[in-house]
């Protein structure tokens, strides 16, 4: 294998990358971002790898959740806060069920680039380049706005930095203090059953805190009770941007993607000669790999070897996204082969991307029931294969959107257009996310 370099990916096949007409501007933008500070730090990545190792051996669980596509227009503190709080609450629900640490990884602060099944979009008899995420072009159906523009990377960097700044403040500045768990706003959860269940969890935590306080342990003297670790992740799709944020650790001389703690390779860019695989080969960060019915298992095993030649644990996360209909057909074989080959991986389940359908009005949606059923099957399959279901990967938001059907509020196809805000795939809303967390918690309890 040839020597890896920051830009060695350029001599491999790069699918789903935009074609920038203005190469000079692209180079200028890359040079600027290369001079900017890193967004994350090596020590945090190493801690995440430890958490992933624990979860892969059943001593923890990974909750990866957030937007399908972050956008420039929906960027504000309220949206970031509500998504953070819902992920925090989902984490609390899962922790209280399994009594094990739950590592929270947001699809946030960098989830801007989207691979699209169709290169072009046709509307009003006009054909334009598809929307590829705010870091590449604009969602508005307009010829000029759909042209890929390198300077959007600067805006994405700045939005990622501000988002991370808030997330870091929320994680350690009091918002995540467990003593406030019963005060966390549940106003947007319309459903009584879910809020009552949540209140019960909060009461249980409050009682434990009172007990610990009697022993002299409280959030004033024990930072773990008021601070959480919150990691970031996104699909490492836009390689010129990712390359510009590579940094070499002063201490270890290892190379880190500093755009996020973890990045993943999507279903459409996972193949052996892929530029994305080549790029990720040089990184110290943990790498997710989406697996679908398209996955050739032999090729996947080779990719795992390329990315993780020393079979380090906490490095590879296999994110299965088969869909409720296909998971039973494909996942067992994948698990068997990975186990036979002795590969260290963390198994995660993405029950979103294999369950996308269209409503009668042509709106992209997903049903809560299909999502839940895939999750249930995932747990059952891992149990029967003797492997560990170590994580879940969800597209959700803290807002009260109407994008996925079903759930306790029983969103119907006709309601979808009420608050359909996503720039790409349909997300679980705040109540659906909380409800899903309770149902996953039930599965985790049953399967153990
Ligand atoms: C995604 O996670 O938003 C995505 C595009 O997933 P996949 O690559 O699995 O289709
Ligand atoms: Co998506």
Characteristics:
alpha/beta; 448 residues; TIM Barrel; eight-stranded parallel β-barrel; globular; binds phosphoenolpyruvate; binds cobalt (II) ion
Describe the secondary structure blueprint for this structure.
Elements: H1 23-35, H2 42-56, E1 61-66, H3 77-98, E2 102-107, E3 120-123, E4 126-129, H4 152-172, H5 192-214, E5 230-235, H6 239-244, E6 246-248, E7 255-257, E8 262-265, H7 275-281, E9 287-291, H8 297-307, E10 316-320, H9 327-340, E11 346-349, E12 357-358, E13 364-365, H10 368-385, E14 389-395, H11 430-447
Helix pairs in contact: 3-4, 3-11, 9-10, 10-11
The structure holds phosphoenolpyruvate and cobalt (II) ion.
Structural overview:
The protein is an alpha/beta fold. It has one domain: TIM Barrel. It has helices at residues 23-35, 42-56, 77-98, 152-172, 192-214, 239-244, 275-281, 297-307, 327-340, 368-385, 430-447, and strands spanning 61-66, 102-107, 120-123, 126-129, 230-235, 246-248, 255-257, 262-265, 287-291, 316-320, 346-349, 357-358, 364-365, 389-395. An 8-stranded parallel beta barrel has the order 1-2-5-8-9-10-11-14, surrounded by 5 helices. Helix 3 links the parallel strand 1 and strand 2 (102-107). Helix 3 runs parallel beside helix 11 (430-447), helix 9 packs parallel to helix 10 and helix 10 (368-385) packs parallel to helix 11 (430-447). The longest helix is centred in the middle third of the chain and has 23 residues, at 192-214. It is globular and about 65 Å long. It binds phosphoenolpyruvate and cobalt (II) ion (CO). The site of cobalt (II) ion has 5 residues, from loops.
